[in-house]
Amino acid sequence: MTERVLIKKYANRRLYDTEKSKYVTLAEVRLLIREGKGIHVVDVNTEEDVTAFILTQIVLEEARQKNALLPVPLLHLIIRYGDNVLSEFFEKYLQQILGNYLHQKSAFDEQFRRMLDLGMDLSGMAQKTMTGISPFRPFMEFFSPEKEEKKEK
């Protein structure tokens, strides 16, 4: 389980990190999450859990900066069916789908890295093998730079 940081939200929209004992911005909260920490945000006046609201603000702020978050047709569907079908989908399946995607992406990236490493190893092994085989040595020497220098003299 990831470390959770308690953040208090004040009426003036300020966020207070209780771990560091200082006020933080949404960007700083985003960095905490990217470092692998979880956050729990509580409204100081009502003691209501407002974590989802703050996380949504962070996502929307990133989308505003990049001028896109989700495709427009998907946004239309979310607005049209948000309280019915899609809320169930988001609660039950979206997190699992994203988790599976990230796991598969990591596995493919690792496999690709291994294949590249193997290719480099095979290339080096092939080179050593070719120079060590005596029937090919004269053939390989024919193409060596030293041979070219002797021809020019």
Description:
With 153 residues, the chain is of the alpha+beta class. Helices cover 65% and strands 12% of the residues. It is built from 5 helices and 4 strands. The longest helix is centred in the middle third of the chain and has 61 residues, at 72-132. A hairpin with a 4-residue loop joins strand 2 and strand 3 (22-24). Helix 1 crosses helix 2. The model has no long low-confidence stretch (mean pLDDT 80). The chain has helices spanning 26-34, 51-66, 72-132, 137-142, 145-152, and strands at residues 4-9, 15-17, 22-24, 38-43. The protein has a 4-stranded mixed beta sheet.
Give a brief description.
The chain contains 5 helices and 4 strands. It is an alpha+beta fold and 153 residues long.
Map the helices and strands.
Blueprint: E1 4-9, E2 15-17, E3 22-24, H1 26-34, E4 38-43, H2 51-66, H3 72-132, H4 137-142, H5 145-152
Parallel strand pairs: 1-4
Antiparallel strand pairs: 1-2, 2-3
Helix pairs in contact: 1-2
Supply database-style keywords.
single chain; elongated
Annotation, overall tally of beta strands: 4
C-alpha geometry: elongated
Strand % is: 5-15%
Major sheet size, sense and barrel closure: 4 strands, mixed
What's the gyration radius in Å?
Answer: 29 Å
Output the number of helix runs: 5
Mean model confidence by pLDDT: 80
Order of helices and strands: EEEHEHHHH
Order of strands, main sheet, comes to: 3-2-1-4
**Unreliably modeled segments:** none
What fraction, in percent, of the residue positions are helical?
55-70%
Structural class: alpha+beta
Distance between the termini: 73 Å
